[in-house]
Design brief:
Layout lengths: L2 H12 L7 E2 H7 L6 H9 L12 E2 L11 H12 L4 E2 L2 E2 L1 H4 L4 H4 L2
Parallel strand pairs: 1-2
Antiparallel strand pairs: 3-4
Helix pairs in contact: 2-3
This protein binds a DNA duplex (13 and 13 nucleotides) through helix 2, helix 3, strand 2 and helix 4.
Length: 107
DNA sequence: TCTGTGACGATTG
DNA sequence: ACAATCGCCACAG
């Protein structure tokens, strides 16, 4: 994987504030690689278990938990709720929590 | 080269 | 709201 892309994704994900969420596609766009949402997911899937990256704040574009039904998904739900994000079933209210970075707000 | 495979996304019925 | 499709892109075999 392009190290530039990897670093950009790490930086962007790390910048998502607690209580807010983003999506794979959005992170990819901010990293300068539109349509690479799948790779954001791939990168996160390859993160070491001890990572300090807030990977749990990244959801699918429709607000669904990508790993719903898996152990990782439950961990994600717990972490989100611990930050005050309400998770209903397999989804969260993106409209309410979606992070709007300055770079994007300007447009 | 071709095919299958994703922690994806937008469109359509 | 839900499911089926299709487009997307890098990688493994």
């Amino acid at each position: 994987m392009n190290p530039t892309f990897r670093e950009a994704v790490y930086q962007i994900v790390a910048a998502i504030p607690p209580g807010s969420v983003s999506s794979y596609g959005q992170v990819a766009r901010q990293a300068g690689f539109p349509r690479h949402g799948r790779f954001v997911g791939r990168l996160l899937s390859q993160l070491p278990a001890q990572t300090r990256l807030p990977w749990h704040r990244v959801l699918r574009g429709d607000g669904h938990i990508a790993l719903a039904g898996t152990p990782g998904g439950e961990e994600q739900c717990r972490r989100l709720q611990a930050e005050g994000v309400v998770v209903l079933g397999q989804r969260v209210a993106m409209k309410r929590y979606q992070w709007q970075p300055d770079a994007v707000r300007e447009q």
